[in-house]
Amino acid sequence: MATEKRRRRHSPSAATPNATPTSFSNPEAAILHSPSPPLDLIPDITSRLTSLEDFFALRASYRAVLPPSRGALACQSPLLLVAIFPSFSEALFHLSLRRLHRFRLPWGHHLPPSRRTLHYAHGYLVTSTTASSHYPPGSCSSTSSPASSSASPRPNVQHCHPGDALWRVATADAPHVVDDMLFVDDTLYALVNGLRLATVELSDSLLELSFLGEEVDDESKPAGGQFTLGECGADVLFISQDHTEMMVYHVYRWVFEVGKWVSITSLGGRTLFLGFFGFAACIGPDYPGIRGDCLYAAGPRLGEWHEYSLADGTCDVRYADYPGAPPLNNNSPIRPPVWVFPSLC
């Protein structure tokens, strides 16, 4: 019964999108009202701001000395891509401030089948259209990863280097099937045949796998299902989900010394984020409004996310409540939930 009540809980109402803030989220933001703060203090002030409204208000006056960068956006919390009904336009929802950030994506809302919002990369929203599906998306050039893998389990992996005109296809030897791939400290790891970890070397047509540890047997098999790779503080993580009775997330760390997955319940105060199609990012600690040692997972419904505490195993289902929010039972395969991280730009 307690779980059922938790699932029905709604978040507080969002602030009106175009409303002028009456107070700032950080004391440093009060300098926005001062006549002329010293130029050498602007970068430090900006790095402490926790509201994008405050950041762009300051940048409007100091654009030359304030380019968007990881340092300038260091305290900006994650945002959730949401839909505005009935226009199907999109906005970014600030979790702790309950505020919408409106923007315009490079396509018309009347052509939803022609494109998908895919993922994020280094803080940026990454998109693609079906018309250009044979070519690497332009956003690839902004990533430091030399390859981009297919998302669904298969023996073939599509990859490209920045500047390539076409995707390359590499094939793994049978019976290996790649379930997930992730870069951690410039090493590409793969989750193979569901549970086994391997490092990957890619060539034009060959997928070379170097397995770590022994095969996983029934006794050492991690609990749950819907397996995905993740990372936290340069550690390689294995994340599983179990939604049979209540929402439970299990997190395991790969211990290289013993060659196996070990269950963990602490992230050192950091927070993991899962998108609809897999791992998104690890941030923290100490982001305003974001809980440490937790896992935030985008839910199946528009504007829904789960907050799972690794410490006590409780899961809260949250909803982005704002003017124009879709019905709570509205699923969207065209526009899956996506996290965007300004602090990782």
Automatic annotation (TrEMBL):
Domain named KIB1-4 beta-propeller: which ranges? 154-298
Q: Which domain of life is it from?
A: Eukaryota
Basic residues: compositionally biased ranges: 1-11
Question: Could you tell me where the Low complexity compositional bias lies?
Answer: 131-155
Q: Which InterPro entries match?
A: KIB1-4_b-propeller
The segment annotated Disordered runs over 1-29, 130-157
The residue ranges flagged as biased composition, category Polar residues, are 13-26
Against PANTHER family, the record matches this protein to: DUF295 DOMAIN-CONTAINING PROTEIN, F-BOX DOMAIN CONTAINING PROTEIN-LIKE-RELATED
Name the UniProt record assigns to this protein: KIB1-4 beta-propeller domain-containing protein
